Amino acid sequence: MEGRFCRVEPLDLERHAAQLYAGIVADKERRTWTYLYYGPFEREDDFRTWLAAAAASADPLFFAVVDRASGVALGLLSYLRIEEAAGAIAVGHIIFAPSLRRTPAATEGMYLMLRGVFDGLGYRRCEWRCDSLNAKSRTAAQRFGFRLEGVFRQTTVNKGRNRDTACFSIIDGEWPAIRASFEHWLRPDNFDEGGQQRERLSALTCG
Question: Which H or E element spans position 143?
Fold first, then answer.
C-alpha cells in the first residue's frame, strides 16, 4: 500500500527485523510496551523470535511501515479479529519507533490500512481496541475517526494488572467522510517548509 510519506508492506523478518529493532529500542523509557501483551525485549534475538512468529501469523496479519524517504522500516501495524463473513476487522499491534511518531508518515500508514479495509476489502466495520487506561491510544483512535462504543470491564489480565478494554469503531457509512478528512489533511499544502501541519486532523474528524 503506497503513500506519499510511507508504504505499508507485508512484514518480512529478514528485511525488516534489524531496522525495526534499531528504531523501537530508541524508546529508552520503554513506554512502547506498557499496554502491550509482550515486550520489552532485552536483546535483538528475543525481538526477532517474537517477530518471526508475528510474520508467520495470518491473524493478526502484520505489516511494516516503511519511511519512503529513507527506505527504513520504522513501525508495525496489523489487521486482526478478521471476520470475513461478517465484513468485520480490527487494526492493532501498533508499534512505532519514536522517530515515526507524530509524523505525516505515521498518520498516512493508518490511512492506508483503513483504505485497505473499506475500499480494498469492502469490509463493513473496523475496530480499534485498547486498554481503557491507555490515554494516547484512545486519543489516537478518535483522531483517526473511530467512535467510542463502550468499555468492556475486566476483559483480561495483562502483565499482572486488570485490563478494561475500550472499543472504538468505524463503519462503512462513515468511511467516505473520514477518508475525505485524511486526504484533505495529507495534501502537500497542509505542511509548511519544515513539515509541520497547518491544519490538525482531529479538527476534521472530531468536529
Answer: helix 135-143
